[in-house]
Amino acid sequence: MNESQNPFLSILITTYNRSFFLRQCLSSINESLKEFLSEGNIELIALNNGSTDETHEVLQLFEQKMPLTVLYEKDNISFVPGILKCISHAKGKYCWFLGDDDFLMNGIEDLIIFLREADPDILLLNHFFYTFENSKINYLMKDKQKFLFKKSKPFYDSYEEYILDVRHNNAFFTHIAPIIFKKDQWDLYFSSELVQRHFQSHSIHIYIFLSILKNSKKICFFRKPQVVLRVGASPSLWLTEDGRYDRFLMDVQYFTDMFREVFTDKKLVRHFKDVMLKNSILILLFGTKLRCQFSYQFYLKLLKLLYSHYKTHPFFWYGIIPVFLTPRIIFSLLYKWFMKKAPPKEEAQYTS
Fold first, then answer.
1. Which of 81, 190, 224, 325 could form a disulfide bond with 77, CB atoms 3.0-4.6 angstroms apart?
2. How close are the terminal C-alpha atoms of the chain, in Å?
3. Residue (of 21, 84, 88, 113) closest to 58 by Cα position
4. What residues does each domain of the chain span?
5. Does domain 9-233 have CATH number 3.90.550.10?
6. Strand pairing partners for 45?
């Protein structure tokens, strides 16, 4: 590539005290995209967001292995300011945020070819989930196509068609790594005023992605899984009653407020709320009952929150209320059964 040309794709990572996972993430990028990186078609930018572990050493190691631009913050500036700093340095036509605990699949060349040929404004990637327990990677939900959409279409003619086809909240960009988007579209909808207005959500990127979706000329879904996402990445933030309640507020109130602000159609808003209720809220509540021993007052406060937003949704009554009433021991037994049914476990391989 000519030096005067900008890269086609910018991969952006902000990392804080996850050197153990960051090594796996960067290894997967090096293995899957080494040729593209060396040719200058893809740029890789990582922000060390005030880490105090071995993150600096890991980044130095990979700077010697592949083209990698490293940005530094002396103190942690939190996630959203971190991704904003990364994207301010991006020069690619497309941008792709990766979590420092996510990693790429092999065979990603097909994705690069698709991006060049289809030229979408926004692209959602099929993906896997994994958990990390007892030094092992447990892959979950291997087939995500029907999991994300009713029809799993590769192209959508309108944002209304896309939204009404969604069956899981991941397709509403609640995970940052499965989305590739045009940098000029991000620049079009980003503003400092937006950051202030939705500061509490810690997720202004979702508002921007929804805005891009609404105004896209081409919306795509890439069926071949490209990235593996870690489940339960920040449990320490959510193990207190106040922290857990704030986590529910993100999905129940903040995300819904953003969606309602971008899409005013009542049918679309109701569908969005249904999807969030049946997936994110249900899973959050299941995890709360499974892992947390909270007070009666916490559950009463949470019930009031959910009732105020979902009382007209049938699933609240036949899907959520029974979870509130089910003893904790039942969830422990169900989780053990589920993990036994999960796909084969693999020893984690963190290479240098």
1. 81
2. 28
3. 21
4. 9-233, 236-341
5. yes
6. 12, 69
Contact between residue 154 and residue 222 where contact means Cβ atoms under 8 Å apart: yes
**Run of H or E including 88:** helix 79-88
Helix (H) or strand (E) holding 293: none
Task: Classify each residue of 282-309 as buried b or exposed e, where b means 16 or more C-beta atoms within 10 Å of its C-beta.
Answer: eebbebbbebbebeeebeeebeeebeeb
Write phi, then psi, for 308 (nearest 5 degrees).
-65, -25
Tokens standing for residue 123:
């692209």
Dump pLDDT digits (tens) for 252-282.
999 999 999 999 999 999 999 999 999 999 9
pTM: 0.89
CA of residue 50 relative to chain centroid, distance: 22
Report DSSP state, residue 91. Answer: -
Beta-carbon contacts of 196 under 8 Å, excluding residues fewer than 6 positions away, are: none
Task: Report the interhelical angle of 79-88 vs 204-214 (nearest 10°).
Answer: 50
Q: Is 70 helix (H, G, I), strand (E, B) or coil?
A: strand
**pLDDT over threshold 80, residue 169:** yes
Give the span between the Cα atoms of 96 and 104, in whole angstroms: 12
Residues 155 and 219 sit within 8 Å (Cβ to Cβ): yes
Which two tokens mark 173? 């960009």
